[in-house]
Amino acid sequence: MIIGGGFAGLWATRALAGDDVDITLVDRANHHLFQPLLYQVATAGLSAPAIAAPLRHILRRQRNVRVLLAEVTGMELSSRQVKLHTGDTLAFDQLLVAGGATHAYFGHDEWAPHAPGLKTLDDALAIRRRVLMAFERAEAARTEAEAAAELHFAVVGGGPTGVELAGTLAEIARHTLKHEFRSIDPRRARVRLIEGGASLLSSFPPQLQAKTRAQLERLGVEVLTGTPVSAINAEGYRAGADFVPCKTVLWAAGVAASPLGRLVAAGREAQLLDRAGRVKVAPDLSLPGHPDVFVAGDLASLTQANGRPVPGVAPAAKQMGAWVARNMRARRAGRPTAPFAYRDYGNLATIGRMAAVVDLRGLRLSGLPAWWFWLAAHVFFLIGFRNRLMVLIEWAWAYWTYERGARIVLGADRPADR
Asked: Which residues are known catalytic residues?
């Protein structure tokens, strides 16, 4: 049984394609999501089908897999059973839990309705609506102060997601929408990226951190570092001593493990979970005390030989998934399992049109060369020819015209969107 159809779960499933086993893949969603491009959906650059594909379609030719759309609500590891939201119970011989991650607000969960995070397609569509409706409400505002609050966009968190969101929001305001309103000038929108730490992109070399900041500021983004946010509500946020009126705050600052971690721990949270709720796994990615239960992806907490934790990024999740499949095979054959060894190929982050940074095993690029490298890498790793073609067409159109085709706003305006 494999819980989770993300990178770790899907790569494990595919790696077991030739094995004489029956696989049940359980996920709450019916699709696999290419999360690195999720911000493009949130900012109307891509439509949802461009970065997601149905799990059943991806695995249609793998005859040893059954895909089950369900939510896991409990686990009995000693009796090898998993409980579903329907009340059904499924038995397993070997189990991989790859539930991914969710948002963490550092003990301030009351901020969540006012500062949505970005982890799922639902999150992306909600953020897209919030961003586009901010311009609509600014157009209808009765005072300059109301319009200014609507046209202020704050992104909390200076990691890759925060940098990508901030740079894209600046492009939308300054290029995509500049001729479309009559009462407001979208180019006057204020985009602010707030990072509590000393620098942006903390996992990148200092020289690329500096270039990231310079490229963002060139796009018109106001970068604020070393000042954590201390309050967020429906009217704005507090950074330092100042409360800033702002109707659109986006959260990219904290990540917590899926609640599945607590189900795996089953009363042993103090021994098995780290501070972020991730499961502390053995070197072979198995659960201590349960050699046929494995945890991979963002839900797994593992320290490498160099003393650094395995990062919660897509390449690490893919490698973990394939590694678990290999260890499952070894366990069934009575052979010893192998400790996981993460191969770090580097980091990529896009900032905006023709602006990105790349740190690839000593190769460090920024600006246009890095942007082309980033684009090629992301198109290459998308699943399915149709997805790649859709992304290339939409990106090519946006490159030459600055237009964003996925700007349709659906649904009624809700208080939570304000």
From this structure: 164
